[in-house]
Design goal:
With about 270 residues, this protein is α+β, with helices and mostly antiparallel strands. The protein has helices at about 10-20, 25-30, 35-45, 50-60, 65-75, 90-105, 125-130, 135-140, 145-150, 160-180, 180-190, 210-215, 245-250, 260-270, and strands at about 110-115, 120, 225, 230-240, 255-260. A hairpin with a 2-residue loop joins strand 3 (about 225) and strand 4. It is elongated, with a radius of gyration of 22 Å.
Amino acid sequence: MTTVLPDTGVGPLLRDWRERRRISQLELALRADSSARHISFIETGRSRPSEDMVLRLAEQLDVPVRERNALLVVAGYAPRYAQTPLDDPALASLRESLDRLLTAYEPYPALVVDGTYGVVAANRGIALLLEGVPEKLLTPPVNAMRLTLHPEGLAPRIVNLPEWRADLLAQMDRQIALVRSPELRELYDEVAAYPVPARPDGTDRAGGTDRERERPAAFALPMLLEHGGRVLSFVSSIATFNTPMDVTVAELAIETFLPADRETAAYLHDHVPS
């Protein structure tokens, strides 16, 4: 569903996106093959942009697909981008491709999430890491942020939880700044309020463990996760679709976890079913 603010014109919304991107009217005009005067007239409501101009400006401002629909509606045009349910037959080939990708990545963990971190699909590497997580957190709809940061989820087993938690919250904060999503804001407020679990010895995790401090510097912030009496080390990467034409597809993200050391890779090869 496209949600818009009825009392907000397209001009102020476009100005807001331009200011977020820290682009001047002149620079935007040059990118969109227009003039600074015309951009100014659009932003102040003195000129109504054409449908093509709304889309051109949105493209140059890197406005998310869902928000492009909102801009079009406020400007008086029909939404351009569909929002197809993921279980729709039209997306069957996409679902199959995602499943093949996740399976091919095994034994390493990988999952697909939507725009509010709902888990759409996951492989057996992820299932291994979730062993011992309470069923209530694994009952659909499953949310990746809740699974990670909930005090009964992965959080008690994440050795460097303060750093990893701060990184995840910063990631969510950046996404909230990019899209107007009440659901995402509600999720952020929820997981940010979770208490940080204590270590088994009763101390908090603020100072880091000796084992954590002894590890060499990594090329990216790793997630250090206790599993089966060992500490596994992962770095994550996130991939999205280029030039999506559907809101659902635009908001999908594929997160893969790459072993950060040989010991973690060997452990996964030994413990994830082939």
